[in-house]
């Protein structure tokens, strides 16, 4: 009669897992169904008992656009820029999407404190779900932008469409990297979300959204180091990519107003975004084991 092996030899030893620490963004990819549940939950909570529901995705940017267009375009005569409505709204779409994604991601872990304390799931799901919700709200705004550009005379071209895809890919990478970093730090220091709100409030003025980039060049000088820093800001690059994709071909002469050397700065911006994403993911993973304790 053959001897049976010990139970410990029959079953392979399972690797030890550090509870509270996930496999990072790769694990989020494998939890797509759970991610979709979190996105639906966030949308349902946000629009609970709301008459307009997702219609607020149109109302809020429309009001913001109207205020800036009247104040700057009509009162301060910024509409000397050709097709100023398309120029303005293109930049606002970028800033609105980025601001919503980063602001919500910063609060995402604290907002879901009950889930963090009670069950284990990849903590990265919370910032990523905030990014997805911002993407849902981006859809209607982008549709309005494209329709407005078509009315203004926009003729789509392959390079312009590629610029649009590149712009919002860049915004998504930046928002995710910053969102992971800020969400983790916000668990330890709740002042972070208030600082983020202040920064996002003034961020629209740090890129050529309300004014042309030539105004900054005239102020700082064409060979200024500060101008180089300004133009290398990844959000500035994202705004200019949207302008290249829509506004530049709305009327003859608009394309000539785009900044030079946009291509190299696009590559630099994606490198910055990739580095920021790596830092954000590393910081988030290192601090995620303390989330339940701190919350």
From TrEMBL:
Main location: membrane
Highest taxon in the source lineage: Bacteria
Residues of the ABC transmembrane type-2 domain: 52-287
Keyword set includes Hydrolase: no
Pfam families in the cross-refs: ABC2_membrane
Cellular compartments annotated: Cell inner membrane; Cell membrane
Annotated TM spans: 84-105, 125-154, 160-183, 195-213, 266-284
Membrane topology designation: Multi-pass membrane protein
Similarity annotation: Belongs to the ABC-2 integral membrane protein family.
Listed name of the protein: Transport permease protein
């Amino acid at each position: 009669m053959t001897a049976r092996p010990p139970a410990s030899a029959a079953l392979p030893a399972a690797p030890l897992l550090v509870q509270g620490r996930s496999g990072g963004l790769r694990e989020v990819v494998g939890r797509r169904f759970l991610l979709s549940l979190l996105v639906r939950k966030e949308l349902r909570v946000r629009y609970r008992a709301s008459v307009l529901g997702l219609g607020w995705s149109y109302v809020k940017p429309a009001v913001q656009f109207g205020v800036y267009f009247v104040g700057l375009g009509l009162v301060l005569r910024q509409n000397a820029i050709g097709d100023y409505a398309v120029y303005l709204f293109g930049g606002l779409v970028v800033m609105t999407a980025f601001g919503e994604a980063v602001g919500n991601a910063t609060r995402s872990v604290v907002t879901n404190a009950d889930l963090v304390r009670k069950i284990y799931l990849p903590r990265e799901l919370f910032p990523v779900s905030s990014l997805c919700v911002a993407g849902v709200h981006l859809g209607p705004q982008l549709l309005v932008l494209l329709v407005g550009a078509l009315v203004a005379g926009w003729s789509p071209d392959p390079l312009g469409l590629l610029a649009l895809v590149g712009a919002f890919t860049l915004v998504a990478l930046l928002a995710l990297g910053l969102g992971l970093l800020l969400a983790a730090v916000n668990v330890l220091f709740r002042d972070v979300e208030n600082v983020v709100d202040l920064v996002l409030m003034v961020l629209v003025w740090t890129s050529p959204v309300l004014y042309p980039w030539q105004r900054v060049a005239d102020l700082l000088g064409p060979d200024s180091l500060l101008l180089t820093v300004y133009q290398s800001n990844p959000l500035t690059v994202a705004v200019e990519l949207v302008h290249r994709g829509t506004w530049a071909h709305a009327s003859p002469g608009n394309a000539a107003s785009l900044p030079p050397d946009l291509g190299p700065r696009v590559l630099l911006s994606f490198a910055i975004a990739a580095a920021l994403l790596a830092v954000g993911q590393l910081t988030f993973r290192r601090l995620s084991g303390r989330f339940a304790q701190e919350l």
